């Protein structure tokens, strides 16, 4: 009897956790990042395969994606702030998954009928398919950016409430989920493409996104129902205040002026408002872009954010260009996915170390430790790279192309393995600092 009584509270705690909004956010985020990781890994291989082992399409895709986020990032953030949370999350989810599904179906058609498409209209139809694939994939990436901002920077903060420790733990758990999916998702789709075909890989990714979209849509609604605070936003409060001011102006007009004069003043103000709104609509994206950077510059964490952005410039990771280059040099999808999984394991070590070091040393000292720990491996890697270049010039000038690739990726993996732990430490520190500032302001 005593054993049963002691086990019952533990089972109840597990049941409550699995039904809580926190667990539902974790589950939805895992499904979302799994699809993102599979697509981000596979799209580089698909584009290289389509264009005859050339990096042209992959480079164009990387440039379009990076440029779109740079130009439209502030506009996306402004759209996220101005609209209700559930509407933003559901719209981003549907657009992202629908774009990936459509892109996967289009790639399947291109792989299946590539020879026929090459002949039709002197190859222009195939070129149009390339442009359409990159455009749709870019839309999916922008929707993924909006989804990431909504969940990681907004919903997690609201669900955690005023508990800073809970907020830090949730951020760390989200990062662990990111790294686990970064290990497993590329491995799965890499094996499918290596032992099956690219056609099967496209079909699998499209099918996964259909399943994931339906389940994530349900999970978002459940989290929204379990967390009433998600229904209230600062932007909605400001809109209510503006409406009250407008009603007060109407009341003053009714008390001080005659009905004819009051209606005339209201019509004139409405006409001015209409004219200004038409002008504002034309220049709204430009103003939003400028105001976003100005607001970011005025934040107290501006220099921390800039330092982190410069840190990303020194990290040689497995992005679409690197993955595509390795594929052109003879590494198949199976080997590439295993390398990505091995490098992501080091990222989990960094995320786990962040929670432990933060509890022992605090947030600021953890940042100092991460910065100092990063400098040593970076210098060692630069020295190793320099020695490898000298050795390659002397010994491997006449070596086969594939041997160069394996040497190159040995040092890439060494660099990524050393850098990933400290990079994630600093990323976690910055995300926790932003979230803490947001809690203090609210």
Description:
- One of its GO terms (molecular function) is iron ion transmembrane transporter activity.
- The structure is a single chain.
- The chain is 89% helix and 0% strand.
- Helix 13 (333-361) runs antiparallel to helix 14.
- The chain has a single domain (19-229, 304-441), classed as Growth Hormone, Chain: A, CATH 1.20.1250.
- With 442 residues, it is mainly α.
How are the elements arranged and paired?
Blueprint: H1 2-19, H2 21-50, H3 56-82, H4 85-112, H5 114-119, H6 124-160, H7 164-195, H8 198-226, H9 234-256, H10 259-298, H11 302-313, H12 320-328, H13 333-361, H14 363-395, H15 401-441
Helix pairs in contact: 2-6, 2-7, 2-8, 2-12, 3-6, 3-10, 4-6, 4-8, 6-7, 7-8, 7-13, 7-15, 11-15, 13-14, 13-15, 14-15
GO molecular function, one term: iron ion transmembrane transporter activity
Function: May be involved in iron transport and iron homeostasis.
Protein name: Solute carrier family 40 member
Assembly type of the chains comes to single chain
Distance between the termini: 48 Å
**Proportion of β residues?**
under 5%
Number of domains: 1
CATH topology: Growth Hormone, Chain: A
Q: Mean pLDDT, as a whole number?
A: 74
Q: Write down how many β-strands occur, each being a DSSP E stretch of 2 or more residues.
A: 0
Topology as a string of helices (H) and strands (E):
HHHHHHHHHHHHHHH
Brief sketch in words of this structure:
InterPro entries: Ferroportin-1 (IPR009716), MFS_trans_sf (IPR036259). The chain is mainly alpha-helical and 442 residues long.
């Amino acid at each position: 009897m005593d054993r049963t009584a002691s086990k019952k509270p533990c089972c109840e705690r597990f049941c409550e956790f699995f039904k809580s909004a926190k667990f539902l956010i974790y589950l939805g985020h895992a499904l979302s990042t799994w699809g993102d990781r599979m697509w981000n890994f596979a799209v580089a291989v698909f584009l290289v395969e389509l264009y005859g082992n050339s990096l042209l399409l992959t480079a164009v895709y990387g440039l379009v994606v990076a440029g779109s986020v740079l130009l439209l990032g502030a506009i996306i953030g402004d759209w996220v702030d101005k609209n209700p949370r559930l509407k933003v999350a559901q719209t981003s989810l549907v657009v992202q998954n629908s774009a990936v599904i459509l892109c996967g179906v289009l790639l399947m058609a291109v792989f299946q009928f590539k020879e026929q498409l090459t002949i039709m209209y002197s190859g222009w139809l195939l070129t149009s398919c390339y442009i359409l694939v990159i455009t749709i994939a870019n839309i999916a990436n922008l929707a993924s950016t909006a989804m990431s901002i909504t969940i990681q920077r907004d919903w997690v903060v609201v669900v955690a409430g005023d508990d800073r420790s809970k907020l830090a733990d949730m951020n760390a758990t989200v990062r662990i989920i990111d790294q686990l999916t970064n290990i497993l998702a590329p491995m799965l789709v890499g094996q499918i493409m290596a032992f099956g075909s690219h056609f099967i890989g496209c079909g699998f990714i499209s099918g996964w996104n259909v399943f994931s979209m339906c389940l994530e849509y349900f999970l978002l609604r459940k989290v929204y129902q379990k967390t009433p605070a998600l229904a209230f936003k600062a932007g909605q409060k400001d809109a209510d205040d503006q409406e009250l001011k407008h009603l007060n102006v109407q009341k003053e007009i009714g008390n001080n002026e005659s009905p004819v004069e009051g209606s005339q003043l209201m019509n004139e103000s409405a006409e001015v408002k209409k004219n200004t709104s038409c002008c504002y609509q034309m220049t709204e994206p430009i103003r939003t872009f400028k105001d976003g950077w100005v607001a970011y510059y005025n934040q107290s964490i501006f220099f921390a954010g800039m330092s982190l952005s410069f840190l990303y410039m020194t990290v040689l990771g497995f992005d679409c260009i690197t993955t595509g280059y390795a594929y052109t040099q003879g590494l198949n999808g199976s080997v590439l996915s295993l390398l990505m999984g091995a490098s992501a394991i080091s990222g989990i070590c960094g995320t786990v170390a962040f929670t432990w070091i933060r509890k022992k040393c605090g947030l600021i000292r953890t940042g100092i430790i991460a910065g100092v720990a990063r400098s040593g491996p970076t210098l060692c890697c630069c020295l190793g790279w320099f020695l490898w270049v000298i050795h390659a010039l002397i010994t491997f000038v006449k070596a086969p192309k594939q041997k160069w690739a394996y040497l190159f990726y040995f040092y890439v993996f060494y660099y990524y393995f050393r850098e990933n732990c400290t990079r994630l430490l600093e990323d976690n520190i910055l995300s926790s600092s932003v979230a803490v500032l947001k809690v203090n302001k609210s």
